[in-house]
## 1
Amino acid sequence: MAEGFLMEVCVDSVESAINAERGGAGRLELCSSLLEGGLTPSLGLLQIVKQYVKIPVYVMIRPRGGDFLYSDREVEVMRKDVELMKSHGADGLVLGALTEDGRVDAELCMEFLAAARPLPVTFHRAFDMVHDPAVALETLVSLGFQRVLTSGCDTSALEGLPVIKRLIDQEAASQRGTCREF
């Protein structure tokens, strides 16, 4: 593996987790329902995956497919999932929430970040639905997210490469260096 390069692989089974680690993954994103963009996996899946792999396992916190606007009851489920995944061995969490006008839901994300401490938290592909990626990145950095999963607000990372490059340059120019991974 090249220095500075970490391969993270989305997995949804014990077998895919083992195979990803064998194939050189340095971190896993554990989900269920990858066809829906990834949903919160079961506690059983997390616990068994942790028995078979040695690399960090970040767990998706997302109660359903579709948009990233959550009802009060869905937020309640997400709070409980954060608590349970944290207490059952997750090495990090992957989550995100937006407002109706396409901004990061800073208030809700701040609540989730506080609940997740001391675990690192990645903002997931909800980022690709934001109205203004540059503003969204500033919000995420100010909240304390260290990673952003994005395809550059396009159908693939290759097609979104110009946006990804602008975001990396934006973060580098700020000289904060707090959001280190895209």
Note: The chain has a mean pLDDT of 92.
## 2
Amino acid sequence: MSATTPHDLGASRTLWELIARRAALTPDAPVLLDESDRRVTFGAFATRAERTAAGLYGLGVRPGSRVCWQLPTRIETVVLCAALARIGAVQSPVIPIYRDREVGHAVQRADARFLITPGPWRGFDHTAMARRLARRLPEPPQLLSVYDRLPDGDPATLPPPPADGREVRWIYWTSGTTSAPKGVLHSDRSLIAGGSCLAHALRMRSDDVGSIAFPYAHIGGLDYLVMLLLYGFPALLLERFALPGALDAYRRHGVTLAGGSTAFYSLFLAQQRQLPPEERLVPTLRLLAGGGAPKPPELYHEVVRELGCQLTHGYGMTEAPMITMGSPLDTPEQLATTEGRPPAEMEIRIVDGEVRLRGEAVCQGYADPDQTVAAFDEQGFFRTGDLGRLTAAGHLVLTGRLKDIIIRKGENISAKEIEELLYQHPGIHDAAVIGLPDAERGERVCAVVEQPAGCSTLTLAEVTTFLRGAGLAVHKLPEQLEVVPALPRNEALRKVLKYELRERFAGS
């Protein structure tokens, strides 16, 4: 009998099937590591997840139950996620930095019957927020606080695991072009397809050590877990990514793969530049990889030259977590100037400059059926709203965005959402929110406002205080404020010309 390969495992119908098959193959190999040197093997991961599933089942979670969870990146979160997959629940992950507005919208639109939070975490009481939200809903969800203590039960009480990997079992949230986040519908198979494509493009090995330094609730978290399960290597989990603090854990665990987005590359470079040229920041690091934000070509060359490792950058979105990815086998020119190539399973068309997609890793649509209809063309291709072109070798070059979003540290931020809140400020007559190039963040949020006659000039601190009070998540707050006599507009429909504002304030 031939040995099982990552490609064989990638054919698993469901996430739980993939977990169980990996646990049977390499039960004693590590899969999850953390800064406290805790270590969980593939076998223990599957066992613990099944016991947690039984505990959740005892609390009323059933196949098809809709469960919204907002938890930090830690071992317990990944176990809980696997436990819900064992039951066959519909999961709706929410990034921990989101607050009342976003979480309330997710719970309501997902029709969640359970809301799982970490309780007080990093100075914010998530349980108190959950109770506030529950009081506003006609059918409030059951609240569960989970941080370091997971529910426990006897796996014998569980029904059989799910068998249909194409059912919608995931609702992820993205800002897109509208003020309210859109619920993106995924199946186990679409997420396994995305993770498989990522792992195969990066040429991972069983002796690698990865790292998840971004929110596991991001769709990239499940992508990464699939990669670990396919290739049988572990990842270091970081609740909070901060340098130089995290470097000790990277070095101690011998991390070989790091990254997340363009902002991560810049942070690693900044730390490397504080060391003598001959001293490597993380001696075991062989690859930085990520996506979620534009990558300047010169950044690729700086990483290779100064960090002494390879850099592969890709293109993905919540609706299709892995669209293209640079490969270590690509040429330096291709890695520096493109987003990589699509896998064989991803079909890309460029229609009137727009990138359109079709493949198993593409979502099934949105929680709002009207948004689903608008998102796909007549041939079933998903409209990304991004502009690009394909090279002769099949690599994708992105040239702009149709969607009015800002990508800050790999997270999509809706300009319209912030603008609508700014309009409520008595000292603002009109506002335009734009993304400006930023070496550390990819893009920074800049609010450009007109004020009514006779008002005292606003300060950035006053604006951010107002937006915080309106419930806007911290990572969406403007980092730059510009007050102008009048916003530039076109002559026909008086639409604000944001490109003029970006040109004007890019160097500010």
Note: The mean pLDDT is 93.
